[in-house]
Amino acid sequence: MKKIRGLSFLLVFGLFIGLMAACSSNAPASDEPSSDSNEDKNKDVELRIIAANHPWTEAIEPLIPQFEQESGIKVKLEKYFEDQLTQKLTTEFTAGSDSIDVFMIRPLQEGKLFNLNGWVADLTSYTGDSEWNLSDFTESSVNSLKDGEKIFGIPTVTEREILYYRKDIFEENNIEPPKTLDELYEIAKQLNDPSNDFYGMVSRGQRAAAVTQFSSYLYGFGGDFIVDGKAAIDTPEAIKAFEFYGNLLKDAGPPGVLNMSWPQAAGLFAQGKAAMYTDADSIYPNLLDPEKSVVGEKVGFAVFPEGPEGQTPYNVTSWGVAMNAKSENKDAGWEFIKWATSKEIVAELQKKSVPGPRQSVWDSPEGTEAFPEELVQVISESNKIGKEYDRPLVIKVNEARDMIGTAIVTGIEGGDVEAAAKEANKQFQQLLDDEN
């Protein structure tokens, strides 16, 4: 009986091994899932994507069905105005929501807050795809969405500070666009003609709004908002920058400049009342549109002039896309981000005048056909030299801009810039201390 039982066991065991081998021989040779299994897996996936009412969203929305067809992933897109977007995201993330998968983010406005609160997923492990090619993105655009070596978002929309100038006025006066800030001031003074309601220079003078455009002047003088973790807007370099910017608009700017953010400044230039204007390159359509501008064909573009300590215009990511750290659809979310920021899609969006972060697209005819040729050259050159932020990288960005803006206003008014800068720096340092 013992021998029969032993033989039965061996027969059963042999049949089990044979079945396992048969199953094994029918399995795929690779551990990677087949394309069919990926499609099946994605059939039930719906991404909830929260976006801003922005030209990038308008341009990519008609292309989303293409992504859905190729990936099998469904997309539910929600759009909000900027302030509503921030409020919506903050409310849901504070409540621990995992229903948001991918969202648009302003890295310089709320990036630090979202990152410190752990609301953004670490995308670093996803970005090694050689075909997608992170190295094609301009360095400063990626740096806007990094914390050390951690990448918490991917750039979608970029902008740089440049110089707009009146080509016809410069030609009439046999003047070349300024290469340095000193030349900028001299030309502005030379062309300033307030008796005929024409001004040598216009830029933002409104307190908080002016800070971002002042930043390139600050960098050109060797200054910065924060140095070694400390407030640095009362350094000799920063004070010289405040004085220069203030004198420029005081001596050659229009009346009412203290009330000007970009719509007012751009509007004055577009109506033919200023020779030069420094601001973001993203504003250019407002200056060329014949319904908004009388100087469209007369507008020239130049790289932001060099300061005493170098040529460093800001080159920032104004918008990026990020992933909710609590999303349960991270792989699918990355598939959308990878698609939306691919070379092919970025090129399509730039055909609709949405300035993207990929240098190869800026170097290609299809990626630049919607932009003025001179502007493309300026953008490509600025991409190489720009700094990745145009405001202090803090949580309470608006409060910081208000503080720093007081020194800008004092300079335009002709007041005691050094005293204003020291007082603003004291307040700014307290803000930094409170956040740390």
TrEMBL record:
Keywords: Signal. It comes from the Bacteria. The keyword Signal applies. CDD domains: PBP2_TMBP_like. Residues 1-21 form the signal peptide. Transmembrane segments: none annotated. PANTHER family: ARABINOSE-BINDING PROTEIN-RELATED, DIACETYLCHITOBIOSE BINDING PROTEIN DASA. This is ABC transporter substrate-binding protein.
